[in-house]
């Protein structure tokens, strides 16, 4: 259920998924900065921030019932898929968990985009 209104009820699971994904990406980013192979993770670390920002924006647009929320969620799904792919290349637990959450968010965003 929406926090302040009923307007976002049909979008709430996607809003929640986007917020969770942004948090996971930021946490993974922080953990990756402390990994000994940071140079090898350069592209992945950049993707984590891009994904987190996209998820935050998608959650905001859905929360305000934006006319462009569906289109934005489609792009968010694509970025979440790319982030999951990058994270899954690294075998540490934080990257694997982040990849799983990114895939889950991508699925929710695709559902939202197709509503």
What does this protein structure show overall?
There is one protein chain. The chain has 115 residues and is mostly helical. It has a single domain, classed as Up-down Bundle (Substrate Binding Domain Of Dnak, Chain:A, Domain 2), CATH 1.20.1270. The protein contains four helices and no strands. The protein has helices at 12-33, 42-63, 69-88, 93-113. Helix 1 packs antiparallel against helix 2 (42-63). The longest helix has 22 residues, at 12-33. The chain is elongated and about 45 Å long. It holds the Pfam family Csp. InterPro entries: Csp_YhjQ, YHJQ-like. This is Four-helix bundle copper-binding protein.
Q: At CATH's second level, what is the architecture?
A: Up-down Bundle
> What is the beta-strand fraction?
under 5%
Uncertain parts: none
Kindly provide the name of the CATH class: Mainly Alpha
Report the mean per-residue pLDDT as an integer. 94
Rounded to an integer in angstroms, the radius of gyration calculated over CA atoms is: 14 Å
SS-based class: mainly alpha
Overall shape: it is elongated
The CATH topology turns out to be Substrate Binding Domain Of Dnak, Chain:A, Domain 2
Largest sheet: none
Protein name: Four-helix bundle copper-binding protein
Organism: Clostridium manihotivorum
InterPro entries: Csp_YhjQ, YHJQ-like
């Amino acid at each position: 259920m929406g926090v302040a209104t009923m307007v976002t009820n049909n979008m709430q699971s996607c809003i929640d998924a986007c917020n969770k994904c942004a948090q996971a990406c930021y946490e993974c980013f922080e953990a990756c900065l402390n990994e000994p192979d940071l140079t090898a993770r350069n592209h992945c670390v950049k993707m984590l921030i891009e994904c987190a920002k996209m998820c935050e924006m998608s959650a905001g647009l859905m929360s305000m019932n934006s006319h462009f929320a569906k289109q934005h969620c489609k792009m968010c799904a694509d970025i979440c898929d790319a982030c999951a792919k990058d994270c899954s290349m690294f075998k540490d637990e934080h990257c694997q968990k982040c990849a799983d959450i990114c895939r889950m968010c991508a699925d929710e965003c695709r559902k939202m985009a197709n509503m």
